[in-house]
C-alpha cells in the first residue's frame, strides 16, 4: 500500500513538473501582439504588372498586405484593422482622430505590444506628427508605406511592412514617440519628411537625420526625440470629432495678397510658408498686421530655424524648425482650446 501511495505521489509530481515546463515553453514561444491599422497609399496600390507609375493607391486590403509577407508570423501575432483605404492626399482630420482614438483604446490592453499604421507617403509625416502629439501611450506606434505599388518590380512595401512590425515589436522603440520606418531607417515623427517624388529613399529627416536602422529584423536605435510627445503631450483629443481649420499660405514673388485675406477670413488660424527665414512682401505685411486670428510663420526652405527675431509682424508666432504642414498640425491642436500668443510661442518651442 505504502509503495502504491509513493508511486502515485511521484506520478503527480512528474505531471505537475511537465505541465509547468509546457506552460513555460508556451510563454517563451508566445509572440508580441501587433495591431496593423491600414489606411491605403501606394503600399496598397495596384497597377499594370511590373510598372511603377499609373497605379491605383489604396486597392489592397490589410489582410492582402500582410499575406504578402509570410515572415511576419515569425515576429508577431498580428491583428489587422482596415481604417480606410485611400490615397493619402485624401487623408482627413476625422481619420486622424479615429486613428488616435483606436490606438488610445487598444493601447490599454496589456496584450498589445505596439502598432503599425500603413499609409501613403505623401502625407505620412503629417499623420505621424499628429499621432505623436495625441496618442497617450509609450507603446511603439510606427508608420510605413512604400514608393512602388505592390504590383511593380521589386516593390518596397513588403520589406517596409516587415521592418515596421519588427520595430513595433521591439523594446527599443518603447517611449520614443511615433516613428516612421522606411527603407531600413527609423525616423522620429517631428523631423521626418518626404524628400523625393519617385525614389525608394523618399523619406528623410533633413538636418537631424534618422534615429536608427533595421537590419534583418534587428532594431538599432541611436538617438531619442527631445521634444515633448505621446505621454508628455498635453493635447487631449478624446472628446473631439473634428479639428479647427488652419490654412497654409505659400509666399512667392507677386503672391496674391487677396488670397491671403480670403484665407484669413475662412480659417481659425494661418500658417505662412515664407521665403528664407519666413519673409514676405510689404503687401502681405500690411494684411497680416491687421489680422486677429493666430498666424504662425514658417519657411518654404527645408532646413533651418525661424526665431522671434526673424518675425516681420508683431502679431505672429515663429514655427521654429517645423515645416509649414507640421506647424499647421500644432496650431490646429493648440486652437482646440483657448490659447494666448505667449502660450502659442511656448508651444512652438515645446513641441
Ligand atoms: N499618392 C500616394 C499616397 O500618398 C503616394 C505614396 O503612397 O507613395 O497615398
Name its key features.
single chain, 14 strands, 32% helix, 2 domains, 4-stranded parallel sheet, binds aspartic acid, Rossmann fold, 351 residues
The end-to-end span amounts to 77 Å
- Give the total of domains: 2
Taking strands numbered 1, 2, ... along the chain, how are they ordered across the largest sheet? 2-1-3-4-5-6-9-10
**Strand residues, percent:** 15-25%
Bound molecules: aspartic acid
Instruction: Tell me how many strands there are.
Output: 14
Low-confidence stretches: 21-26
Secondary-structure map with pairings?
Blueprint: H1 2-29, E1 33-40, H2 62-67, H3 72-75, E2 77-86, H4 93-107, E3 112-118, H5 124-134, E4 141-144, H6 157-168, E5 178-182, E6 185-188, E7 193-194, E8 203-204, E9 212-215, E10 218-221, E11 246-250, H7 257-265, E12 269-274, H8 282-289, E13 295-299, E14 316-318, H9 324-334, H10 341-350
Helix pairs in contact: 5-9
This protein binds aspartic acid.
Summary of the model, kept short:
With 351 residues, the protein is α/β, with parallel strands linked by helices.
Amino acid at each position: 500500500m505504502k509503495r502504491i501511495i509513493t508511486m502515485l505521489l511521484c506520478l503527480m509530481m512528474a505531471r505537475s513538473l511537465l505541465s509547468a515546463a509546457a506552460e513555460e515553453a508556451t510563454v517563451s514561444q508566445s509572440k508580441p501582439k501587433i495591431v496593423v491599422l491600414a489606411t491605403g497609399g501606394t503600399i496598397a496600390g495596384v497597377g499594370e504588372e511590373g510598372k511603377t507609375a499609373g497605379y491605383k493607391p489604396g486597392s489592397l486590403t490589410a489582410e492582402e498586405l500582410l499575406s504578402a509577407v509570410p515572415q511576419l508570423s515569425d515576429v508577431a501575432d498580428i491583428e489587422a484593422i482596415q481604417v480606410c483605404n485611400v490615397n493619402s492626399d485624401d487623408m482627413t482630420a476625422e481619420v486622424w482622430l479615429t486613428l488616435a482614438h483606436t490606438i488610445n483604446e487598444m493601447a490599454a490592453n496589456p496584450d498589445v505590444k505596439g502598432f503599425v499604421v500603413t499609409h501613403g507617403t505623401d502625407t505620412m509625416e503629417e499623420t505621424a506628427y499628429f499621432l505623436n502629439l495625441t496618442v497617450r501611450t509609450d507603446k511603439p506606434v510606427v508608420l510605413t508605406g512604400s514608393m512602388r505599388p505592390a504590383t511593380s518590380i521589386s516593390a518596397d512595401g513588403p520589406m517596409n511592412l516587415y521592418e515596421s512590425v519588427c520595430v513595433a515589436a521591439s523594446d527599443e522603440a518603447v517611449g520614443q514617440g511615433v516613428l516612421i520606418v522606411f527603407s531600413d531607417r527609423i525616423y522620429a515623427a517631428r523631423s521626418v519628411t518626404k524628400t523625393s517624388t519617385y525614389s525608394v529613399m523618399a523619406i528623410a529627416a533633413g538636418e537631424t537625420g534618422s534615429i536608427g536602422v533595421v537590419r534583418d529584423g534587428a532594431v538599432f536605435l541611436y538617438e531619442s526625440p527631445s521634444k515633448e510627445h505621446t505621454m508628455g503631450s498635453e493635447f487631449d483629443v478624446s472628446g473631439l470629432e473634428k479639428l479647427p481649420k488652419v490654412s497654409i499660405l505659400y509666399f512667392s514673388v507677386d503672391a496674391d495678397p487677396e488670397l491671403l485675406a480670403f484665407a484669413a477670413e475662412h480659417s481659425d488660424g494661418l500658417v505662412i510658408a515664407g521665403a528664407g527665414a519666413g519673409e514676405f512682401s510689404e503687401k502681405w505685411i500690411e494684411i497680416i498686421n491687421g489680422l486677429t486670428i493666430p498666424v504662425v510663420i514658417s519657411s518654404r526652405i527645408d532646413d533651418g530655424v525661424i526665431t522671434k527675431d526673424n518675425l516681420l509682424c508683431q502679431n505672429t508666432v515663429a514655427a521654429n524648425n517645423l515645416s509649414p504642414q507640421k506647424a499647421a498640425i500644432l496650431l490646429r491642436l493648440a486652437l482646440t482650446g483657448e490659447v494666448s500668443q505667449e502660450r502659442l510661442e511656448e508651444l512652438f518651442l515645446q513641441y
